[in-house]
């Protein structure tokens, strides 16, 4: 894999993986390759993630509101470079919540990146996905996608973040919003687009901000 300045960690927790691809907690796992700690988010690193995402979308809000930036990103891939999950995090401000962060995970079943980024610790969502009416809907590549709320395993996260999960194109789609109150922004029927399909519009993307806390 073309590393640029990406570093590897377990796709299910933040621990680094060894040269043999083993996590001290979860054993052999596919690695999450993301921007290195202390490095600035850059288009070059983002492009490296896009190249390794195969047919997995790398979703971002699009068009992005003024002042919002791409703050973090990553791809989970096997040793033979088969992509299993992608994540992108954007940050900005709202008049009600101040600093706001949004992480979007697209993953195959049984990967665990969504559980890591959301704090739920789940490999896959439970049967509550699809039970009852959805909490929110987002538009992904002109398709309406229903999302249901997930409960964090950490009671302290109730106010810290809101988590929503649904199914998109046969894969899990996770949205993690911080702080939790900023989930009200999703009522505006957010538009999400696959950055791997961007052409000239890619130059309009802004990068920066603190890395996500996952």
TrEMBL record:
Protein name from the UniProt record: Uncharacterized protein
Known Pfam families for this protein? DUF6758
**Which superkingdom heads the taxonomic lineage of this protein's source?**
Bacteria
Q: Which InterPro entries match?
A: DUF6758 (IPR046646)
